[in-house]
Design goal:
CATH class of one domain: Mainly Beta
Oligomer: single chain
CATH architecture of one domain: Sandwich
Number of helices: 17
Number of strands: 44
Distance between the termini: 65 Å
């Protein structure tokens, strides 16, 4: 219908049909022996501590100072019952009002009591509940939730027996329970297990009209945006609904329509489409603006307009190959958004607060902004974790970050033949897809993490890992949800064996856990890496101190290093292997003689490996459509897999990634006897005009060759040059022919715009630079202020390798940067707290002995 149909009559006042009131104050929790208390009537003698809801037992114990995250392996929460309780006041329900107690997520086998009455029993961490309580609600109310001890419930033998085993978790019977595996995986996530009301508790009050379901499915048809709408509403106490009205507003203007109503089985069903001419499309942030439109659904009831729902939508077109014949399980994910190929790069999501699970809104936004600022355009929610909140998905929509959504299954042989289990899984999947199905950020829905791989590596028929659950039931539910996203049955999958990297979607750890040389990246011909680059990434000094300090690097430090269960090595051994390979150093000897130097080189190793791998995959000639780092943020203090530490601060590896994944980027690749290739990517929606310069240096100071070329790179494209073609002569740039010593030991490729350096890359044909004193290196820095903003300008006479900025209370954007001979770089300084005062600091570098003082300007 036309927009005029949705115009709001002036006589109709607008009010909300629904109110949601959080029950978040006054909570406390206490533990008790399993089964010691059947109901909340006998709990007074327990040792109660204050608790946050949404939150967990571990979060409460941390806040009370009873437990700290560095003691993760010492806290077994599955051996006790845990009670949460609070008292709250509420208006009693009046005639014609529905009131529901909303439980957004309880971990895991739980009972909920309102005013002493059992109102809900649940057996899934992932299934929300809405419990009618209008007749039970009083002026003053007591609410109690008991999370029963999981260990006794898992102890009995259960059938059917598993067809394969996994070392991911110690307790195989977890396959029968719908709960998170993070916190129960001893090799990389030993604890604490999630226990308690992690998803939050609230009261929902509705009058006259109840919205039971709303499905929004936006799409692009040419330049036109089309929003398909399906709504189911109920009237309360005989209310008269005259019509439903849909309104959309945003960068494409204001539009609206009236939805046709049909009465069916006591419900009012509304279906319709709203068409938006010349719709502003939604893009991942690397490739354009993530344009969002606000949508509101209203009902005209009893002479009043009631707001039923408010959502945001984005119009975009999604495809997963250059042509429709492409098969993900054969060819991998080749993501196209709005007709443009998008190299997908990102990480596996780890919670902003892995202890309490429910992070404050500002912490959640800060972590997702870290994702965006690193040039990442996708995050994967892995099957070992938990589903994320609407706030998380709202931020991904807003920030232009694509989402790969695993269903919460990993490694285990799940009992789909059990009717109760099957019904729970169906409810879980349908509830999730109703929440996230129409979001522009949703790109991939994956059945599980590593189930097919686990079965195949155990030696059974790989098809058993797919089975009915991931081969029939879940794909049917996804198809019925009519979502615009790729379905992938398992990650990894494809090929004769699901872990072969040159087919389908693979977990690539050739460079990493399998200690393959860097040349393996091209040899492996990865199509899409659903996990990659699991490295023990060393945090900065504050993170090292929280893990025991650089002088120790002992038992406490080792406890946070990820390891595959049952192996005699861990991922620090992997990093040490590459430290020896890249720097020619003896890791064990260096660690003993100079632990500070050992840690600084270790920080650089991770970043340089990540940059090389992504440079190989991102080049135009690569078959790879993208890669996801395992993972984003550490769960514990120490050198975990995260590129952010356990408090969310960036590690050196993060800064390397931010340069390698930037939407406008220059990088080089070693082509062996074919020399060195120079690549420039312009993911932006506008043409890039810039100067590309290449400089060759001998002795890391003397320029021995250079080339300058003005480049114009079309939007969403890249170009590649042969370095020696740019120079106009053969210089054995990669030092592959080796007719003599290398003519150059440093190659610098720089992309310059009107305001200076846009991107810069460095390559060492022979070896990395030796350590020198401050006077020999000529490294210096100064602070420049402009109002409240501060920057640091770093310059160096000789090549300065991996320069770090140390300024108490401040973080340098683009840290761990190298400075070409005679060059300079300007980095922004960000205050870590509102009261931080810039009082100077010092610089370090990988090839600098000692440090260089930074003097703060007055």
């Amino acid at each position: 219908m036309s927009p005029a149909d949705a115009s709001r009559p002036a006589a109709l006042a607008v009010s909300r049909a629904e109110r949601v009131i959080a029950v978040s104050e006054g909570w406390e929790c206490a533990g008790s022996p399993p089964g010691a208390h059947a109901d909340p009537g006998t709990l007074e003698h327990l040792s109660w501590v204050p608790a946050e809801v949404p939150g967990t037992v571990a979060g409460a114990l941390r806040a009370a100072g009873i437990w700290t995250p560095d003691r993760a392996r010492d806290l077994d929460l599955d051996t006790e019952d845990w009670w949460f309780r609070t008292a709250f006041d509420a208006d009693e329900a009046h005639a014609g009002e529905e009131v529901d107690l909303m439980l957004a997520g309880l971990a895991t086998v739980t009972e909920t009591y309102l005013n002493g009455e059992l109102v809900h029993a649940g057996e899934s961490m992932f299934e929300p509940a809405a419990i009618p309580v209008a007749g039970r609600l009083k002026r003053h109310n007591e609410l109690a939730i008991c999370a029963r001890a999981l260990a006794p419930l898992l102890a009995p033998r259960r059938k059917p027996r598993a067809r394969w085993r996994t070392r991911l978790v110690a307790e195989a019977n977890l396959r029968f329970v719908r709960t998170m595996l993070l916190g129960r995986a001893p090799g990389f996530a030993p604890g604490p297990a999630p226990v308690g009301p992690w998803g939050g508790v609230s009261l929902r009050r509705r009058e006259r009209v109840a919205l039971d379901a709303l499905t929004l499915r936006p799409r692009l048809e040419g330049g036109e945006g089309v929003l398909a709408v399906h709504a189911r509403v109920r009237t309360i106490a005989g209310a008269d609904v005259a019509r439903l009205v849909l309104e959309l507003d945003g960068p494409s203007g204001a539009h609206g329509c009236e939805l046709a109503l049909e009465s069916r089985d006591g419900l009012l069903i509304a279906d319709g489409e709203l068409r938006v001419p010349d719709a502003a499309p939604w893009w991942p942030h690397t490739h354009g603006e993530p344009a969002l439109h606000e949508v509101r659904l209203d009902a005209d009831a009893d002479g009043e307009r009631l707001e039923l729902a408010r959502r945001r939508v984005g119009f975009r077109a999604l495809a997963f190959g250059a042509d429709r014949a492409q098969e993900i399980e054969r060819d991998g994910i080749d993501l196209h958004v709005n007709g443009v190929r998008v190299f997908a790069r990102g990480a596996l999501w780890t919670p902003a607060d892995p202890v309490a699970l429910a992070a404050p809104a500002d912490a959640l936004r800060a972590q997702l902004q870290r994702v965006r600022d690193a040039g990442m355009n996708i995050v994967r929610l892995p099957g070992t974790g938990a589903y994320q909140t609407d706030a998380f998905h709202d931020l991904c929509d807003e920030l232009g970050i694509l989402v790969w959504q695993d269903l919460m299954f990993a490694n285990l042989d799940y009992p789909v033949a059990d009717d109760t289990f099957r019904a729970a899984v169906e409810r879980e999947a349908r509830t999730l897809l109703e929440r996230v199905g129409g979001r522009p950020s949703l790109a991939v829905v994956c059945g599980n993490s590593e189930v097919e791989q686990q079965a195949a590596m155990f030696g059974v028929e790989p098809s058993l890992g797919r089975g009915e659950l991931f081969g029939e039931l879940l794909p049917r539910i996804v198809a019925e949800a009519d979502i615009d996203a790729a379905w992938l049955p398992s990650a990894p999958c494809g090929g004769a064996l699901p872990f072969r990297p040159d087919r389908g979607v693979a977990n690539y750890f050739g460079v990493g856990g399998y200690r393959r040389p860097l040349t393996d990246v091209r040899f492996a011909a990865v199509r899409f890496a659903s996990e990659c680059l699991a490295l023990s990434n060393v945090p900065d000094e504050a993170g090292v101190e929280r893990a025991g300090g650089a002088d120790g690097l002992g038992e406490r430090w080792k406890a946070a290093i990820p390891a595959d269960a049952g192996t005699d090595w861990d991922f620090e051994d992997v990093r040490d292997h590459y430290l020896a390979l890249l720097f020619g150093a003896d890791p064990a000897g260096l660690r003993e003689s100079d632990p500070g130097r050992y840690l600084e080189l270790s920080r650089a190793v991770s970043g340089e490996l990540m940059s090389e791998v992504f440079g190989e995959w991102r080049r135009a000639g690569s078959p790879c459509g993208g890669g996801l780092i395992l993972w984003l943020r550490d769960l514990l203090p120490g050198a975990g897999w995260g590129v952010l530490d356990d408090e969310g601060a960036p590690k050196a590896a993060y800064h390397h990634l931010a340069r390698a994944l930037a939407p406008v980027c220059v990088w080089t690749t070693d082509e062996g006897l074919a020399g060195v290739a120079v690549h420039v990517a312009n993911d932006r929606p506008t043409t890039l005009g810039a100067l590309l310069r290449v400089d060759l240096y001998s002795d890391f100071e003397r320029r021995v060759g250079d080339a300058r070329v003005e480049v114009e790179i079309a939007p969403h494209s890249q170009q590649t040059w042969d370095l020696e073609d740019l120079l106009g002569r053969f210089v054995d740039a990669s030092w592959a022919y080796r007719f003599g010593p290398p003519a150059q030991d440093l190659i610098v490729a720089t992309l310059e715009g009107s305001s200076g350096i846009v991107s810069q890359a460095f390559r060492f044909p022979a070896a990395r630079p030796a350590v020198q004193g401050p006077a020999d290196l000529g490294l210096r820095a100064r602070i420049v202020r402009s109002g409240a903003d501060a920057r640091i300008v770093i310059a160096s006479r000789r090549f300065a390798y991996g320069v770090r900025v140390h300024a108490a209370g401040f973080e340098a954007t683009g840290d761990a940067v190298s400075i070409e001979p005679g060059g300079e770089r300007t980095l922004a300084l960000r205050a870590l707290s509102p009261d931080a005062e810039l009082r100077g600091g010092h610089l370090t570098a990988l090839n600098l002995a000692g440090a260089v003082t930074i003097e703060a300007e007055s």
